[in-house]
Amino acid sequence: MDNLSKNTKRKASSIAAQLAELYAQPFGGKPTGRFRVSPKLMRRLAGRRRLTEEFIQELGNEMFELGFVLVDLELFYAIVSVQSFGSYRRLGDAQVETILTQQETISNSDITDLKRPKET
Q1: 101 phi and psi, to 5 degrees?
Q2: Residue of 45, 40, 38 whose CA lies nearest to 9
Q3: What pLDDT shows up at residue 110?
Q4: If you write DSSP's letter for every residue of 39-83 in order, what string do you get?
Q5: In whole angstroms, how far apart are CA 119 and each of 20, 113, 114, 115, 116?
Q6: What is the helix (H) or strand (E) element at residue 108, kind and residue range?
Q7: Which neighbouring-strand residues pair with 109?
Q8: Can you give the pLDDT at residue 8?
Q9: Mean pLDDT in runs of 10 for the chain (120 residues)?
Q10: What is the H or E stretch that residue 13 is in?
Q11: What is the rounded distance in angstroms from the CA atom of residue 110 to the CA atom of residue 108?
């Protein structure tokens, strides 16, 4: 680890603020926007040898307070603006009803199959 993070555990709120600032900066060939961070670099930013579930959850909560979502994808952490989710399609009652009806039909046919005597 370099001097910046050596033996210095940083607060989740501080890291969240810096990650939020990075969202608006150009890098990786893009002017702004979502990005990902490897666990190695996240440990370095945090000044920690190990990133506990509690710390990542705290960091996620701090990010959310700033309008961002931290997604732990195991191989990396993704940082996305909460606003980007606003344009997603909404799942409606009709789609849920269709799914539930299909599940019920499948379950009922399984029960009917179980009641039939096996042909020999």
Answers
A1: -65, -45
A2: 45
A3: 62
A4: HHHHHHHHT-S---HHHHHHHHHHHHHTTEEEEE-SS-EEEEEGG
A5: 66, 12, 12, 12, 9
A6: helix 93-115
A7: none
A8: 85
A9: 62 97 91 94 96 97 97 96 90 92 76 60
A10: helix 12-23
A11: 5
CA angle 93, 89, 29 (to 5 degrees): 160
Q: What is the pLDDT of residue 51?
A: 96
Q: What is the pLDDT of residue 14?
A: 96
Q: What is the pLDDT of residue 104?
A: 79
C-alpha to C-alpha distance for 20 and 7, rounded to whole angstroms: 24
At position 55, the amino acid (one-letter code) is: F
Taking CA atoms, 16 is separated from 24, 53, 79, 91, 109, in Å, by 13, 16, 10, 31, 51
The total number of residues shown for the chain amounts to 120
Q: How many CB atoms lie within 10 A of CB 10?
A: 14
